[in-house]
């Protein structure tokens, strides 16, 4: 919220000499966050004065352009110029070349004299152009930084001004004013108004606040049946048990002149507040909104067909809004309608059919209060954030509609020459009463840590507008005689609903600097859970192995989910469709972490990083039989358990996955070292490392996955046979289609499954001092038999003396019959209490070989 200081001074005791920085310092002391200072004179300075055109001589030049050679008086006739400097004529008459043609001799204009600086560091100096020395410039609103119009210069009489020559134009146009911008949090919507800010400033400086809204309310006429305009509140789809519109005030002003210029004081304040001046009626509407915090809407009454009806949209309805866009309406949208149909989206934007224009003479003023949830959803649905919706969705004071309408009517009468019709329309729906908050006497002091007296608590709560009564209550100390307060928040503070809110207000107004600083004592805890420890161990192990952790967005295209989600295309998972994706190309939630990882790899590879080893741990989203719920929960409502169960049933399963991608070389080439490219075995080793970090021995078998190379893919399972994931080299066609580096490798594991398989505790084995005995064995088996199955059988058959068995060679060739392969394995034996003899190791080896022959038909090769 930008706060022009001249505006704030009307309603709060801000010293004339106070700067925007000082105002911000005051607002920060009561809990507002400072943003920026807006000061026009930071960009414009020097002699900028009012001048009068004495002569204008058009001259056509060889480039086809016609310019005007002008003589402009910048001091009253008969007075000498008091300004001095290069290019400033002591007579007070400046020769100026001007390319605009929208002025006449005798017009009063804004003249920037030599030495002036305009926005954009545009410095005015005498310069020779078109055969003349131009000693200054006749300025347009764009050149002065106060508007976008650059079609012609600013003629002061056309904006209702007739100042004396030589008057400081910066002062005349309000450019010496400045604005302090504060950040208003969503729960303090009252801060989006001069009224709210002025009240808070008075709190900060301990001065009384006179509510000017009450004055306007007293001047407002009584509502009558025939006053204002006929209105019907027909919302048949209340949200949160509250009608979409609970108050609708109407007033009528006849005979306005919409062509009248907006007064300079109003235009400059709107500009400093961040709102562009458009036309007098629109500016009045915006001015009252900023001043009171109540958005208004003006209709051309002649274009309103019959009574206004406030209702929800019907299926298939559409509306052309003020931005000339045709919008398809949702049945949840709250509309302003007449006999012709929709004429506005309530609280968001009006319709073009009833817009106030240059031909408007009679204005229908609307000051209504709409449900915050309804307005917020419509604004987001139609992507129409506005100053009005920003205020409505943070809740507008339900008691100021008549006062805001009165203020608008008075300005239309005073500035636009209109005549107010007697009486007003005021249609209401009974609203839930403001909840009374019970505040125990010791509650605030206990929560804040400051010993506030009861008188101080009452004083501060009363200052913000609360009604405070004492009542008997039981204090937290168990004293039945302890006092409590029954606090009724003011109408403009919809955020005060609990004792915590009231305690915060007391602390805020008394001063945060009075709260003592004490370091809290951390309570004893159990530390990280087993799951958290396991996850941390996995990520640390992968990082220690040389991989780099990255984070990617959890969004994917449908084609990516189809490719990576399942081993075959027939089992494709489309994934959860996003209603409002940040990118149409990534319109679904991911079912695999690999698409985002591969995007990161491809992006880094394109930027010159050739050797890449990346990993990511993140959630994926797997929809079940039910996706979503027909119930859209409103805000601040406790739902029934059955509704919660249905909503929870529609939430997709979200397992934790870890993905790994490799491309380039494991080690760069160096003197005496050859570069070694990553291959499928590296991806498999990294995947096995995940299990090793958790003490889970993953089983490896030949696998098949549509995105992986058909002969270089491993499927990993837990010891009890649960599927964990895949590892290997990506399919060449996938690599080509995705523009990935050649022979990119990857792995993806379900970390939840591995975490669930980890043992309750891992017993560390002592290091043996006994000598190991190593024997090799070569077995001839079927080519389809996985080497891992052979390792498992040898381990089982060898018994306790076997310490390790590993495959060191696999051979398939001419010397072996078709359909067979030779698997060579190294077996290491060791006893914990003695040195093994060769016979003991051989016996254990033979038992293992016999079991492989029995189970797999293995034949020992000589």
From TrEMBL:
Classification via Pfam families:
B3_4 (PF03483), B5 (PF03484), FDX-ACB (PF03147), tRNA_synthFbeta (PF17759)
- SMART domains from the xrefs? B3_4 (SM00873), B5 (SM00874), FDX-ACB (SM00896)
Localization in the cell: Cytoplasm
GO MF, one annotated term? tRNA binding
Provide the B5 domain boundaries: 432-517
Could you mention a single GO BP entry for this protein?
A: phenylalanyl-tRNA aminoacylation
**How many cofactor units bind, and how?**
Binds 2 magnesium ions per tetramer.
Q: What positions does the domain FDX-ACB occupy? A: 768-861
Residues annotated for Mg(2+) binding in this entry: 495, 501, 504-505
The protein's Enzyme Commission number: 6.1.1.20
Cellular component (GO) terms are:
phenylalanine-tRNA ligase complex
Gene3D superfamilies linked: 3.30.56.10, Bira Bifunctional Protein, Domain 2 (3.30.930.10), Ferrodoxin-fold anticodon-binding domain (3.30.70.380), Nucleic acid-binding proteins (2.40.50.140), Phenylalanyl-trna Synthetase, Chain B, domain 3 (3.50.40.10)
Annotated keywords: Aminoacyl-tRNA synthetase, ATP-binding, Cytoplasm, Ligase, Magnesium, Metal-binding, Nucleotide-binding, Protein biosynthesis, RNA-binding, tRNA-binding
Name the family the entry cites. Belongs to the phenylalanyl-tRNA synthetase beta subunit family. Type 1 subfamily.
Q: Self-association or partners: how does it assemble? A: Tetramer of two alpha and two beta subunits.
Name-wise, this protein is Phenylalanine--tRNA ligase beta subunit
